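Consider this pair:
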Amino acid sequence: MSYRRQRSLSFSDRELIDLAIAWITLSVAFALLLNPPAAGRFAMEPFLLTTALSFVTVGVGFLAHELAHKVVAVEKGQLAEFRANYRMLFLAIMSALIGFLFAAPGAVYHRGRITVKENAMIALAGPVTNLILAALFFPLMLFPNLIGVVGHMGVLINLFLAAFNMLPFGPLDGNSVSDWSWGVFAVVFGVSLLALVGFYLRFGFF
């Protein structure tokens, strides 16, 4: 069977394990970034609450991002599967401790004949999904208490994931998009970055 006719969307045991480990690690990393340990003391209760909220918001953003890559890749006739990068997951935790999150937990690797444009469409699917999720989370901010916090974190995390992944470097999505069209790259990256900065200036981190 040719790659172009391959349309099944399935998940191996290894892929599910890698997704779970990446999800857990990113959730803890975001919690550390948003609720950093102070020198000489650690507020366990706020950290646990932030971690629990991160599991929900990071889980939706991260899983939807990777699933979007996989769905589009399979639609383009590719064999696609997520693989965690354990060195990058360790770096995510370490970078969060010093106030900056380097969120590159892994990637959906795909193989099969493909054009530069199709490869860019696969890459673009992840950040665009995060921008859509940020818009969907935003109305939740109008509610008080926990729902409003979930909305705030959902917008922040998804805008961060969109902007970070659109950087035109290394294995990040922006590199594949810029290889195809600098115009499309500039629009999506610009919207992601401006939205993230504007949201931070207006509402802060947490």
Notes: Strands lie at 79-84, 106-111.
